[in-house]
Amino acid sequence: MSLGYIAQIRCFAIADSVASIYDQRLTFELSGKYMLRIFFFVLALALGQTSAMASALFSTEVVLDDSDTATEQTAKQKAFVDVLVRMSGQSNVGENPVIQKALPSVNQYITQLGYGESEGLRSLVLAFDDAKIRTLLTQAQVPYWGLPRPEVLFWLVEDSASQRNVVWEQSGSDLITTLKAEGERRGLPVLMPVGDFDDVVAISIPDLWGGFTGPISQASTRYNPTGVAVVKVRNNRLSWQLFPNAANIGGDAPIEGQVSGAPAQAFATMVDDISNYYAERLAINLGVADSNATALTITGLNDAEDFFVVERTLKGLNSVASLRLASIESGTATFRISLLANEEIFHNEMMSDRRLRRVEVLPEPVVETLPTPTPAPTQPVGVNGESQETIDGVIVPVIEEPALIEAPQVTHTDTSTLTYQWVG
After folding, report:
1. Is pLDDT of 375 > 60?
2. Could you state, in order of their start, the residue ranges of all structural domains in the chain?
3. What is the pLDDT confidence band of residue 88, given thresholds at 50, 70 and 90?
4. Nearest to 246 by CA among 279, 274, 216
5. In the CATH hierarchy, which top-level class contains the domain 152-282?
6. pLDDT in tens, 133-170
């Protein structure tokens, strides 16, 4: 065999090897690009779901009884309280005094308003401002329950006179509609088992009715919920068990409850209890309302009676969310107030009381003294009075540029303090 032929064979072998490596590399690159696209797709899907959930938390729809303006304002306030309940995790947040003060000015919290139809009746569709709601809850010293929200899987068993049935997602039962509506009201994501072959094989009605944690845990795993609830409906009585940590069903004692009444009322109470449980553990305190407070100074206080009258007056103003005494000295009290409205509205409320008078405080300028510049070394002076310097033994006149005198810097004091005089 000639050397040329052998060299040709080796060339073909090397070429095949290079082609194989190139194909593998190309396949890897395509696979990497494909996996990267899948990653971004899943990420976008997750972010889209989170965005949709966040939007739903601050939106609501309320039925209008008629077209009267007063009725529409009442509907706005009801919708506002519903959103505040959802975002605070507290079903009684509407009773908070600060929230009560904010209700008449509900319009400033609305970002979108439209009209729709719900069950054949005209409805009002509203969206509210996230940032303003956060501020209001901070002023009311109420926690904020944000995202993500726990997803709860509900195994619902209905006990009729003749038999017991699991209510599946695909059954179209009114119970599911009612349960999901209550979950939406409180911002609690509700999951329902679909009822396919895997569900039917994984669990039985006796397992659910008896509360056997093994089969319940195994059948719930595919839905990856945060918590699992087993609900038993019999006539007008509802009993439920919540396993708040789906990953440890059987390890922790379940939370139980019983409710009597029609399904709409019973489901509302159950969802309230479950939502309150999670909110107590997941809602956060946004901070102290005093962090964005305004300083308010009241002068002219002659005695303790004047101080207490002023304090009661300030607390009664609709524009004041919270009030804290910072100092009191020589008939002057300084407060830290958190306002629900702008300073103009606050001033108008203050001026409605003839015992108070606005004091305009002019800022006092503060002059910053600049350091005295160090004088330059004295240069030799020539015959005509000009400065001179010597370079290589030769006297050269120095042309001096006129010195620039920098003006002193002036600053002003803070004008954010509101000052009033008590003349009562």
Report:
1. no
2. 59-139, 152-282, 289-366+413-422
3. very high
4. 216
5. alpha beta
6. 999 999 999 999 998 899 999 999 999 878 999 999 99
Domain 289-366+413-422: assigned CATH number: 3.30.70
Amino acid at 112: Q
CA angle 30, 35, 41 (to 5 degrees): 125
Rounded Cα gap, residues 98 and 100, in angstroms? 5
Exposure string for 394-420, b = 16+ CB within 10 A, e = fewer: eeeeeeeeeeeeeeeeeeeeeeeebbb
Given a cut of 50, whether residue 82 has pLDDT beyond it is yes
Q: Which among 310, 346, 283 is positioned nearest to 148, based on CA atoms?
A: 283
Q: What is the pTM of this model?
A: 0.67
274-327: per-residue pLDDT in tens? Answer: 999 999 999 988 766 566 788 999 999 999 999 999 999 998 887 888 888 999
- CA-CA distances (angstroms) from residue 51 to 77, 100, 152, 311? 25, 30, 19, 43
